[in-house]
Structures are given as structure tokens and as C-alpha cells.
Design a protein that fits this description.
With about 350 residues, this protein is mainly alpha-helical. It has 3 domains: about 1-60, no CATH class; about 60-170, DNA polymerase, domain 1 (Orthogonal Bundle); about 180-330, Intergrase catalytic core (hpI Integrase, Chain A). The protein has helices at about 40-55, 60-65, 70-80, 95-105, 115-130, 135-155, 180-185, 195-200, 205-210, 245-250, 265-275, 285-295, 300-310, 315-320, 325-340, 340-354, and strands spanning about 10, 20-25, 30-35, 215-220, 225-230, 240. The chain has a 3-stranded antiparallel sheet, with helices on one face. The chain has a 3-stranded antiparallel sheet with strand order 4-5-6, with no helix packed on it. A hairpin with a 2-residue loop joins strand 4 and strand 5. It is extended.
């Protein structure tokens, strides 16, 4: 975990089962390394905290002692506003739902320096008892962690404690095969064909697709392109996409005023169509996952596929690259064609040696 300069660290030393801490000497500034004589991270955190508090490190300790959850909360929201965080616009109150529903009641009035790993474990367990799934619990823990990181960045907190995140086993892994997509498409109203086709072929998010205006559509040498502005892509980088021939033909039939894609009642109609087609579990977001897989399967290089779908990091992109059963079947077929019958080869060798 990255730390604020001068706030020390916790690490494992080769050959020792105990955790070690490191912190600057208050007089010389040299780094001191010391064994905690314990394998528990909570013990190491508390020991490091005491060492840093004893040395002071030039931080405004009086101000740190007064810094409460409410102060860190406001600093978080200010950071959101400064960065133009889009998530705030999704909530009617202008605040993340988890902040008001879960974090506020639990941490209200608490000093930031008292928010340690033990307290975070208690917060995590309370959310689990309330019925929240691991992914939802992690989102709340991430909010608190970001608050504490901002407090540390601003010199209001010496260091951020270990945040006990849960393993997420409820990650959605759905995708739509081409034949399945065609069956759902057949059940959708015609005015929605262009937008779902665009999403399936590019991996574009529905929110971004809905905002595309006709002024962003242009034709060159008989080919149609869509220009996505930086504010419309998740990675904030502008992008020029060429549309497939069948999608371009659909768009040419439309009046070129306002939004390029008609998205009226998209979610409602999608839910009805997927049930009629026999795929009640398919989500609209599965089109984005499928878009990533389709691009790679079509031979598009990874860097280009990430740019088309707006995935900024490879780790996030890889989460969307879901391997289908059909792909695995194809891989086995190719393997068999390459190696032939290994058992027959073994029998022939056995016979020749006998």
C-alpha cells in the first residue's frame, strides 16, 4: 500500500516469520527498521502508529487529533467535485448511496485516527449481517479507504490502516452469443435495433451510446463513423469508430436530428425481449462484456479493442474477456487436429516395441 511520505511502512523480511515496521528517525531522518515480534498486521499497525506519534514527524498533531469522520467525508466530496466525478450525478441527493445509508450511521462523530482495522472489521461484519453481498460491502469499504487516503494526502492523518476487503464471488460473468443476440434482436422493436447492435459490436456502454448526437456522425468514402468525445468515454480519451455496414445502413434511414440512436424504453423493451427469446438472465451490460470478447475473437489486437470499448487498463479489460464454452470447444478441436490421436500413437509405439 502506497503511503504518505514520512509515514513508514509494514513489510515481511526474508527468513523471519514476524512482520517488520519502518519509520524515519525523528532526529536524523534515517529509516529505522524494527521487528514487531508478531505475525499479526493489526499488531504491526498499532506499533507503527505509536512510533509515528512519538516522533511527531512535523505533522500538525493537534489538528490531527480533532479530524473527524465528517471532516474526511467533506474532503471526499470536495475531491469528487474537483475531479468532476460522474457518480455524484447518478444520485438524487448528489451523494453516493452507500455514504448516507451505511457509512454515516456507523462512523458518525468518530475521530479518523480511531478508525483502525478492528473497527473496519466491525463495519464489514455489520454490513454482512444486514444482508449486503461481498461486492456491495467492498464498495462501502472502498469509500472509507478513499476518505482516509485523502486525509493522509492532506496531512490530516499519519497513515491509513489495512482495509479488510472481501473476496467477491458474485461477479457477473454473462455474455451473449451471436445466435442468442439475433434471437433477442428479433423480439426488440425496430427503433432499438441500431443502439443494441452498436453496443454489441463495440462494447460501448449504454449511457455513452445514448448521448451520441448526429453531429458526431460523419461519412467518408461511403463509410460511416462516430466520433466519441473525451467526456463520453470512460477513459476520457476521444475516439473515432467506424460503424459496420449493416449498422450504417440502419442509421441512414433515420432523420438526422438530435440523438443518433433511439433509446426509448431500452431497458423495459430489453427485459421483455430477452424473456420472449428464452434468455431471461441476459443483462444489457452483457452486451459490453460480449463486445470485448467479440473484438478479440475477430482478430482485433488488444490495444485497439481496449480503445474501442473505452477500457483504460488491461486488468479491467481482462475482466470483460469472458471465454465462452464455444471458444473452449474450438480450442479442443484445434488441439486434437494438431496432435492427432495420442492414444493411437502410443499403441503404435507399444506394438513396434513389443
Amino acid at each position: 500500500m502506497k503511503r504518505f511520505p514520512g509515514t513508514g511502512g509494514i513489510f515481511n523480511r526474508k527468513g523471519s516469520r514476524f512482520l517488520y515496521i519502518s519509520y524515519p528517525d525523528p532526529i536524523t531522518g534515517a529509516t529505522i527498521q524494527e521487528s514487531t515480534k508478531s505475525e499479526l498486521r493489526s499488531v504491526a499497525e498499532e506499533m507503527l502508529r505509536k512510533k509515528l506519534e512519538q516522533s511527531g514527524q512535523g505533522y500538525p498533531l493537534a489538528e490531527m487529533k480533532k479530524w473527524r469522520y465528517e471532516d474526511a467525508r467533506e474532503a471526499l466530496l470536495e475531491d469528487y467535485r474537483d475531479k468532476g466525478n460522474r457518480s455524484l450525478k447518478r444520485y438524487k441527493s448528489g451523494l453516493p448511496a452507500g455514504l448516507t445509508q451505511h457509512c454515516d450511521p456507523f462512523f458518525k462523530g468518530k475521530l479518523c485516527k480511531s478508525i483502525d482495522t478492528t473497527l473496519l472489521h466491525a463495519f464489514k461484519n455489520k454490513l454482512l449481517k444486514q444482508g449486503l453481498r461481498p461486492a456491495s460491502v467492498n464498495r462501502q469499504l472502498a469509500l472509507v479507504r478513499r476518505m482516509l487516503n485523502i486525509a493522509r494526502r492532506d496531512g490530516k492523518l499519519v497513515f491509513v490502516p489495512y482495509v479488510p476487503m472481501l473476496k467477491e464471488e458474485n461477479v457477473r460473468t454473462g455474455f451473449v452469443e451471436a445466435d442468442e443476440f439475433a434471437r433477442v434482436l428479433a423480439k426488440l422493436p425496430e427503433h432499438l435495433h441500431s443502439i443494441v447492435l452498436f453496443m454489441y459490436q463495440t462494447g460501448c456502454r449504454s449511457g455513452a451510446a445514448k448521448k451520441i448526437q448526429w453531429s458526431q456522425v460523419e461519412e467518408r468514402d461511403g463509410k460511416m463513423y462516430v466520433r466519441l468525445e473525451g467526456i463520453q468515454t470512460k477513459n476520457k480519451e476521444p475516439l473515432l469508430l467506424r460503424l459496420s455496414t449493416e449498422l450504417a445502413d440502419l442509421l441512414r434511414k433515420k432523420f438526422r436530428i438530435g440523438q443518433a440512436f433511439d433509446s426509448r424504453n431500452l431497458r423495459k423493451e430489453w427485459e421483455a425481449a430477452r424473456k420472449k427469446a428464452g434468455f431471461p438472465a441476459l443483462l444489457i451490460h452483457d452486451l459490453r462484456r460480449s463486445g470485448a470478447r467479440n473484438l478479440i475473437a475477430a482478430g482485433v489486437d488488444e490495444k485497439t479493442a481496449m480503445a474501442i470499448g473505452g477500457w483504460k487498463t488491461r486488468s479491467v479489460f481482462m475482466r470483460y474477456q469472458i471465454v465462452s464454452t464455444r471458444n473452449l470447444d474450438d480450442a479442443t478441436t484445434k488441439l486434437e487436429e494438431s496432435t492427432g490421436s495420442l492414444l493411437q500413437a502410443a499403441e503404435k509405439l507399444k506394438g513396434s516395441q513389443g
